[in-house]
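Quick one: structure for this chain?
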Amino acid sequence: MSPRIEASTPRPLHHFRYHAGPELGGVRSGEGLARGHSGAGVHDLQSLLNAAGAQPPLAEDGLFGPKTQAALRQAQARLGIPVTGALDASTLRALEAAPRPARPSSPPGDGIEPARTGPAPRAPLQNAPAPEGSVPAHTVAREPRVARDPRVPASAPAGPAPVVAGGIPDRIIDRTARFESGRRYDAWNPDDAGHGVSFGLIQFNQRSGTLPTLVQRMSQANPQRFDEIFGPHAANMQSPSYVRSADLNDPDLRARLERAGREPEFQQVQRDLARTGYYDPAARMAERHGLHSERALAMLFDSSVQNGTGGTDRFLRQAAEGGGSEREVLERFARLADRGAANGRRTRILNDASFSDAAPAAAPVAPAAPAAPATPTTGPIGPGTRVLMIGDSHTVGTYGREMDSLLRSTGASVESYGSSGSSPSWWMRGTPTSSGFVGRHADGTVEQPADWRTSHVTPRLRDLIAQQHPDVLVVSLGGNMRGMTDAQIQRQVRELGEVARESGTRLVWAGPPSRREDAGDHAEIDRFDRVMREAVAPFGNYVASSRYTEYSGADGIHYSGARGNEIARGWARGVFGEIQGQ
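Got it. Here's what it folds into:
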């Protein structure tokens, strides 16, 4: 049974608030418009979407709500550009150049009425209508209706999920979903090989962190509906660390999660996370290795879901070393990714005549690493978020520079510090470093001694938090902890985690990358990651960096040279994607 959960005070019915966004001129210069923005820029966007044939047409009320977001997603898919649900410069150019069909009239509004006083009424678990004045999930255009048995509640699926008309990515996602869940958004595996519950279309997993991320993204997509479904558990279920450790097989929690899987808006969250977390990285891998077919994308996506993106990248690099045609590379990849199974999943996709060996006509891929202020993301870090990042020598170097740039690309206010040789205790006590230090400040200035051997005090974490009041703390430490005992690791993590918890700061901990000694044998780094994950779990989320790295450098620890630096940048992108749920 799950631990006792005290009923939380319900949030007000209209938890969401709009804030002023840039005008379209600002978007052209690199700013972004996203759900939650308001103003003239949103009004002009709604006008463009209506002119481009938004169905249903939008009220041009200047409020970027769920209907505007859904219309923008539809337009992006139709125009063959990345489907983000937010407006950036490239999407704006495509909309302005789009054909102009006849414009309908009398659109429904996108606004949400002002907040009421007092708590929102909570609906019972079964078939409760949304409160008056809300934006119910079924009003957002998501997936096509399918015929259903009238005896089944309206929120329940009528058999497997319908294929969404979204082109190559959705077709590939649905193929893997057949393997993983029978294409059901509420599919449930009570214990996935000792890794806790797996749930949903592609079996998002509890211990790996993908299921906690999914549940958090559901709460962000529609806070009111989330509260209605999860009732007294809603506040706890918004915490990834709680979801990671909770007994989700408790009958009440399971029933509520399965009900969330039957909500069209939350089903779309599953598809979005499948795309940004697995399809887009798979497409970037294919591009790097010159693989262009739909079949290649399907095999890489399927392996990423089952083996992780880091494991898939390693298999692909090994397969590509032999050269030859795309078919020959894919045959070697299938043997590696299927781990020798004669009729494994990748082998079946390789021989499936329904997949094309030609390049898709349009398979947009999200950019690997935005370098300038870009569209705000839908993850926990975005415009106005205060982020503090601390780390060791990897944070001083390429990984830290890339991570700092990615965090700033969301519009967040970022302070990042790297102290070479550091472990958590250094950041608690202010231990000096004589092997490299950097401070990258929110105003864009960089503090770094000209001679890297110059001694510099490691800032104390308590002081940094007191000065900056961060919303999110990103810790990239672990390389200097690999020689510690399990008890030492747990003690140092606990000391740092308690400081973050006392301050109300959300903690995300990125573990160390692979070393030269890990090549060909990941048993030790895998064991270390398990210890770290368990130690971090009471305080926040842990990201296993070894998934994204295969050592390349000179000293066995630090990543250097052209290949090493590229791996370090990819590592940063992988960690950032997990933080944002992408």
